[in-house]
Structures are given as C-alpha cells and as structure tokens.
Batch of 4 targets.
Target 1
Amino acid sequence: MKQIFIDKFSIPKDAYEEFVQRMNYNRNFLRTLPGFLEDSAYERIDESGNIIVITVAIWENLEVLNKAKEAVQAEYKRIEFNPEEFLNRLKITMDRGIYKEISINL
C-alpha cells in the first residue's frame, strides 16, 4: 500500500531562502531512492506573514519508506547536517505525518 509522507513547515520570511535550498537538496536526494514514486510542494503565506510550505512524498509501501528514512539519516550524517538544529536556528516549526490514500466510492 502506498505511503504518503507529508511535512508542513511554518517558515519566517527571513529563513525562506535557506529553507528552500535545503528542501531542494532533500527532494533531489529522495528521488534517487528505491521505492520513491513522486513528490510535490506547496506554499502559502499565513496571517502572520510566515510562509507555510507543505511537502508530499509518495512511496511504494511502508518498507521502502522506512529504508528511505534510514538512507536520509545516513546522508545527513555524511554531510554533517543536523535537522533539529537547522529548524531551531531558523525558527521553523514542522508537523510531520505518514498518510495512506482513502478510497472514495462515487
């Protein structure tokens, strides 16, 4: 069953450029991993002027998603990137979840 990995970020304006650079690096890396199907990203500005970004990555199944998470952690270690420090430094908040598609009968 496909697994849909969704992140929602709230980004202060002054952190947006650095965030997008990191997001693009991550998205390009994910596209190289086995079981990756597709991804997309969306943005809007909230009432406080923060930029809200939602990223969606679709994986073949839970097994490949779990392997992808391991590969991402290994890549972060290789490039000495600390995601928690990155988010804290830029004052970015994140909400993450794994979803499955709902079958709608019309």
Note: DSSP finds three helices and four strands in the chain.
Target 2
Amino acid sequence: MKLVVGLGNPGPEYAETRHNAGFHVVAELARRHGIALARERRFQGRFGRGRIGGVEAGLLEPHTFMNLSGKAVLAAAGELRLGDLGSDLVVIYDDLDLPFGRLRIRPGGGAGGQKGLADIQARLGRSDFPRLRVGIGRPPAGEDPVEYVLAPFDAGQRAALPELLDRAADAVEAILVDGVQRAMNRFNAGGAVALEN
C-alpha cells in the first residue's frame, strides 16, 4: 500500500490559501478516483483509501497544522504498515522557491525550510521518501513570505489553479504507477502553468 500525504492547515480560514496546495492536490486525486475523504481520528486528519492506477493507496490530509504534520504521518504510516517508506510514502507541499505552476519531484533530500516536511522527517527519522513540490512563487518585494503563503491565491493564480492541480495529480499518479525516476523525467522538465493576464 502507498500513502499520499498533502500538507496544509485545517479550517475554513486556510482553505483557499497557497499553503494548502498539498490539500488541494489530495482533493483532486480523491475526486478523480472516487475516494471518499473522511475525518480519521487515528490519523488526526482526513483520510480515504482506494485504488489509483491499480495501486492501493491511502490519501491523507493531516489536520495537526502544518508544523506538526509528522504526528499524523507517523500514526498513518505505522498503522497502515507501509512496506518501505522510501517508495511507499509520497508527500505533497507548496514551495516558495519554485515559480507558480512549476512542479518538482524529488526522491528525498532536505526540507528546504518547509516546516511540515521537516516535522515529518524528524518524526520518521528519515528523509528518503518521494515528494512533490508545487510552486507557488515568491511574494512581491516587501511582502512578508509568511503572509504570502497564508493568503489566498490571487486572481490570475486562481484561474490557472485547475490546470496546476490537474498536472500535480498526474504527477502523483506517475510516481505511484511508474516510479519516481520516470515521473521525474516526465514532470521536472515541464514548464510552469501559464498565468492569465
């Protein structure tokens, strides 16, 4: 079984923010594959399981708040008895250092300042699991990065968001079905989703 985790913050005040890109991708995967996400107390979030491209998968949105995402992931990974976290866990999160609309798949590595990912790595004691970074771009000069990630997408980004989420869901499916290396070859070289002016 595979576990796909989208990072974000719970609550209506955060629902449309850039920091919830991971939640948005998980919701798109759930919609595509008819997987119902329901509150799961054991995993401290919303969880559902089903098949994605013939692969048994669980979808998880941790509701521990971003900086404590590892609590939910550790609980789910332990109970679902994943075989090898290096291939059976995929984490999706927003990334300031990628232009809006760019995707970047990595087989492992550091957290790069992403506190939710850092908490997952600390609690699991490893960092060699695949992740999908969803580019949200840098804030305009003078704008606080924290305020930027916790603000809603602007009008141009909102218009492009369906295409971005569609491509991000494609990327996760490719990781699950074809493996990380082939997914990287397919999606890392692609350009960013175009913003409407």
Note: Residues 2-187 form a domain with the Rossmann fold fold (CATH 3.40.50.1470).
Target 3
Amino acid sequence: MDVRLRMCTVADAFTLAVIGSATLLDAYAGFLPGQSLVAHCAKLHVREAYEAELRRPESRAWLAEVEPGAAPIGYALLTPPEFPPELVQPGDLELRRIYVLSRFHGGGAGKRLMEAAIAYAREAGAPHLLLGLHPENHRAMAFYRRHGFEQIGTRTFFLGQTPFTDPVMRLAF
C-alpha cells in the first residue's frame, strides 16, 4: 500500500476530527460505555478543538493518505505534554494521538506516522516523547514498546465521565 504523509494545517481540522471519532469508536465500541465514547468525541474530536491545537506553535500533525484521491486513513498529533508534573521535563513533547483506521493496520501507516513524530521531536530538541494509552490497548502498547517507549507512570484519564488509570510511556532521546 502506498501511504503518503503530509504535514497538517488548520484547514485539516475537520478531517482530523472525523478520523479521530471514527478510530475511537472503531477501537472501543462494545468495550467502553457508549455514552462516554460519544461524549468524548463531542468534546475532543470536533473541528474547533483541532483548529485550536493546530494553531499552537508547539503542535504538529501529520496526515496519512492513500489512493484513490488522497483518502485520509490516519494521523499523528504532537503537542506540549499534559501529564502529571512529576512525569514531565522541560522541553518534552507528547504524542497526543496516533490513529489509523483499523482496516489499514499492518500496512505501514502507523509506523510511518510514528517515525515522523519521533524525527520531529528529535529535531526540535525534545529530551523525551511521552504518550498515554488505555491500559487494555495491548496492541498499541506492543507497538510503542517496539519503538523504544517504556512505561514511566500513570495518569487519570476521563472518557466522558468514566475515569481510567492510563499508563504513561516515554521515549528518551
């Protein structure tokens, strides 16, 4: 599969919101409470939220596309970290999201998005790249470990009104 990556602009906010909602529902429907999933999408996976994030000078996003017609299949979003202060050092970046539609898992899109995020974090001089994930997302955990991430702690994450204790992982440069 020929996956192309490109850097996102504010004009890509709606596309990122659609992919964010689609991948979240695809991954967790039937596993997490439906109303919590919908509430999470309504709050965080909307055009306005992505527009605000893409306007921050510290944030970067890459869109993965395939033919025909540069169809969007996933993205990665780097931001300043939002983790407990004891887990963050000055200059750290967070891989806030790396989402690929499940139909395209195993086709190299996730790997290419991860490589773009890591390369940017290194070039930016970040000492670490941090991420958080659902504790039962074993496939993602294995993917992150293959890229050198190690668990350094936990954080409380809310999906709608439902709290989870998420592992926080770090890649040191």
Note: The first strand starts at residue 4 and ends at 7.
Target 4
Amino acid sequence: MIVVSNRIHVASGHEAAFEKRFEGRAGLVEHHPGFVRLEILRPKTLQMHNQTLGGSTYYVVLTYWENEEAFLRWTESDDFRLAHANRPPKEMFAGPNVFEMHEVIQTAEPSSRT
C-alpha cells in the first residue's frame, strides 16, 4: 500500500474557508479502483511536559492506495481533473504545497488483552 500526502500551507485567517471547500468536495476519488481511503488532517497543538508541541500551519491530505499504479491512474482520469478544476484563491495559501509519497512497510493495530 502507498500513502500520498499533500501538505497544504494555509494562510492565517483562511482556515475555515479551506475546510469548507472539503466539506463540499465532489467525492469522486472514492470510486476509483485501488483507492483505499482519504483523511484530511487539521493542525493542532498540544501542551506536554511544559512545552507546546505541534502548531504547524500545514493541513495534510492523505490518500491511501493499493499501489502506485492505482494512484497514477487516478491522476490521469477525467474525475481527477474535475475534482481539481475549481482552484481556490491564491491568497488562501501561505506557501507551496508539499507532495510526498510513502510505501507502507508496517502497520500496527490495537491488540486484545485477555
């Protein structure tokens, strides 16, 4: 499995508008072969051990795919072009997006203790 992340540097004051765009998304990716799931992550801070941790200004959009080929087919589809056609205003962003792709080499889930 692969995970594609798009870290999006949202400008201060545009967070609510950015999140609203995802509420109304077309939902086209869900129907593509090889798609596993989508997660949209909002940045958070945490007070721990007398310090503030986190606090990134990046939102992260994660898509999980069975393999790289499935992701590439999505990016070459008409649905991909349609899903990305209504671009947000440039002032919504404080910098360029950061694209990353990772291969899942290990997962862990809660174990049951008896």
Note: The mean pLDDT is 93.
